[in-house]
Specification:
By secondary structure, the protein is mainly beta. It has one domain: Translation factors (Elongation Factor Tu (Ef-tu), domain 3, Beta Barrel), CATH 2.40.30.10. The chain is built from 1 helix and 7 strands. Strand 5 and strand 6 form a beta hairpin. The protein is globular.
């Protein structure tokens, strides 16, 4: 189902080779395998959701949705890590 998600922050889970966005759905929902689109100025990225989980983030003791994206290489992880992924909106196909 198409939807929008507000990314509040992100982190890396090395043991799962995942990069996780955490935040809240603005509309709709998503499921594993759904396409993800995000724009950061001139940068446009398309990828897919690996898993969707409810996670607890200790910064404010709230529960958020976590969208895990897999990566295949250290270079891909470095790219995700270097992006400023907070307070941005992403869309799902």
């Amino acid at each position: 189902m198409p939807g929008k998600f507000l990314v509040l922050g992100s982190f890396h889970v090395r043991s799962r080779t995942s990069f996780v966005f955490f935040g809240d759905f603005l509309e709709g929902s998503t499921e594993p395998g759904a396409g993800v689109r995000l724009s950061l100025g001139d940068i446009r990225i398309t990828t897919a959701v690996n898993t969707l989980e409810v996670i607890e983030v200790t910064m404010d003791a709230r529960r958020y949705h976590g969208l895990a994206l897999g990566y295949e290489s250290p270079e891909e992880l470095e790219t995700w890590s270097e992006l400023s992924l907070a307070n941005i909106e992403i869309q799902f196909d």
